[in-house]
Specification:
The structure holds 2 protein chains of 2 kinds.
Chain A lengths: L1 H5 L8 H29 L4 H11 L5 H25 L7 H28 L1
Helix pairs in contact in A: 2-3, 2-4, 4-5
Chain B lengths: L1 E8 L9 E8 L6 H11 L19 E4 L2 E4 L5 H4 L3 E5 L5 E4 L2 E3 L1 H9 L9 H5 L9 H11 L6 H5 L11 H12 L7 H8 L13 H5 L6 H33 L1
Parallel strand pairs in B: 1-5
Antiparallel strand pairs in B: 1-2, 3-4, 3-5, 6-7
Helix pairs in contact in B: 3-7, 5-7, 7-10
Classes of the chains: A mainly alpha, B alpha+beta.
The structure holds protoporphyrin IX containing FE and FE2/S2 (inorganic) cluster (FES).
Chain lengths: ~120, ~250
Amino acid sequence: MERVWKWFAIRGRSVNSIAYSFHRITGIVLLIYLILHLGFLTSLRFGESLYTAFISTTVKPETLPLDSLLFLATFYHAFNGFRVVLNEFGLFYEVRRALIYLMTLLTLIFWIYSTYLMYTYVVR
Amino acid sequence: MEVTLKILRFDPLKDKKPRFQEYVVEVYEYTRVLEALIWVRENLDPSLSFRYSCRMAQCGSCGMLIDEVPRLACKTLIKDLGRDEVTIKPLPKYRVIKDLVVEMDDFFEKHRSVKPYLIRKNREEQEKPKKFYVQLPHELQRYLNYGYCIVCGLCSSSCPNFDSSWEYLGPQALSQAYRYIVDSRDEGFEERYEVLNSNSGVWRCHFASECSENCPKGVEPAQAIQMLRRMILSFSFKKKLSLFSEKIHRLSKQ
Ligand code: HEM
Ligand code: FES
């Protein structure tokens, strides 16, 4: 277990492996979300009321920050994953650090815009 | 200027667990970590163990974790660390023998497993070469960067994947495989293919590229691994394609 924690060690690490740690964390977060999501959908098979009960606990304005964080994890994982794919094909090796900053910037832009949309939609 | 060296010590005969011990050392602008360690051993504590030989970043013996980053003690200026307390630990991932000395047998074994030498297909030529192998400057350039490896183990010890998969060959061995494969005098790609494409080979890399960041000689193992992947992919693809076309050929003859 101690070895697993070391995947996420930050001290003494460069930005490259911090990006790697975050990719792993967001991947696991997305996986957990996916499992919950499929669980919720499966509940439909046991009747609409069960599904509605489930949904009413998670879909409400108070949980919106969690949705926003989920979007952050998703955008990070997607953009960073794209960077990893490029790098692992041997492309853009020399500018790998700049690519991390670019992808993080894109993540933040998409995240802020999506959160903005989310809140304006809910307020409306 | 006075600096405190905080050294993680472990003596298997006495200690149950590693423990920190501090030494205060007078340092100058150009004092390197290795010099400070040698001073401690000569003046304060003769029981302190660490490895070194060349003192000039050539032999690769003095790798250790200095302020949480794997570095060569003989190349690291204390001034550059910018702190008056320097933490020194043995290289992570390897078994500690005593204090800062770690066992690197497994690491060298992995290096050996990729056959880090020139291979000729002709066995006789391999043992008794009869001619010079002329190499052009651009052919040299293809592997020069990877040829600077001094086998110090800093790259492999900084790879986050080693924490969970010990069997991984690691950036050092893989970059050396690449160094020989792209050498115009070498014909050993197919001989190395099996181990490179194995479960412990190139596919274990997740491109954290910490290896390239920490190499004291500017070698780029992270790049070598990705180039090897390309080579392995195109080789496997060609092999599959030729097997397939052979099959078609046979079927069409029936
Ligand atoms: C645009 C969509 C996505 C892209 C481009 C993407 C890309 C990647 C890449 C390239 C890796 C390998 C990283 C490495 O070598 O270390 C990876 C790992 C992973 N992904 Fe994704 N992914 C996407 C969506 C998802 C989704 C929806 C999930 C949720 C189930 C997910 C879960 C994971 C997990 C758990 C890992 C393993 C983490 C690791 O090995 O460090 N990914 N992803
Ligand atoms: S003593 Fe030889 S590399 Fe440091």
